[in-house]
Amino acid sequence: MTLARAQRGDMQAFATLYERFGRPCFSLALRMLGQRQHAEDLVQEVFLKMMDTIRSYRGDAPFGAWLKRLSVNACIDHLRRQRGFVEDNPEDQLAHIAGEANEASTMVDAWSLLSRLSPRARAVLVLHEFEGYTHSELATLFGQSESYSKSILARALGRLNTLVTARPLEQAPLWSPKS
């Protein structure tokens, strides 16, 4: 009923949708972008776009999934606009990250581990491991082949495993990729 009201332009219905879906969209954007301010700005953009396009929502997928897709597309567009996301060679980015001297004691949670990945690797990992996107879906989103996302994901997981094993043995591992 709220969705139908929003499709008719009811601002209170839009506010209700924001209350229900704003936080999950923000969490997704924060995990993908790695910067709070960018994530906040992106969520505002997504909800403004949603207000303009909600009449085209046909109900083929759950509304939350449709809105999540808008958020993911907006994140990828943002990352593409950032210098180096598309143009840089992923091997060069990963080699640069591997060469950085980072103290294991500064890694206190999973987010600190994710933030040590390049934006490209973090986006692929978050979408695959946390959001459940398949390699086929990632290939479509990034305009690449399935082997592209598999390669980026494997390198990102390898980098995370390297970071985790550098932690003192008495600490529990922070990352356990899904099978």
Helix content: 55-70%
Q: CATH homologous superfamily of the largest domain - what is it?
A: RNA polymerase sigma factor, region 2, helix turn helix motif
Structural class: mainly alpha
Element string (H = helix, E = strand): HHHHHHHHH
Class of the largest domain in CATH? Mainly Alpha
Main sheet: strands, sense, barrel: none
CATH architecture of the largest domain: Orthogonal Bundle
Question: Count of DSSP E strands?
Answer: 0
Please describe what this structure looks like.
This protein has 179 residues and is mainly α. The chain folds into 2 domains: 2-81, Rna Polymerase Sigma Factor, Chain: A (Orthogonal Bundle); 90-165, Arc Repressor Mutant, subunit A (Orthogonal Bundle), CATH 1.10.10. 68% of the residues lie in helices and 0% in strands. The chain contains 9 helices and no strands. The chain has helices at 2-7, 11-33, 36-53, 63-81, 90-99, 110-114, 119-130, 135-142, 146-165. 24% of the residues are buried.
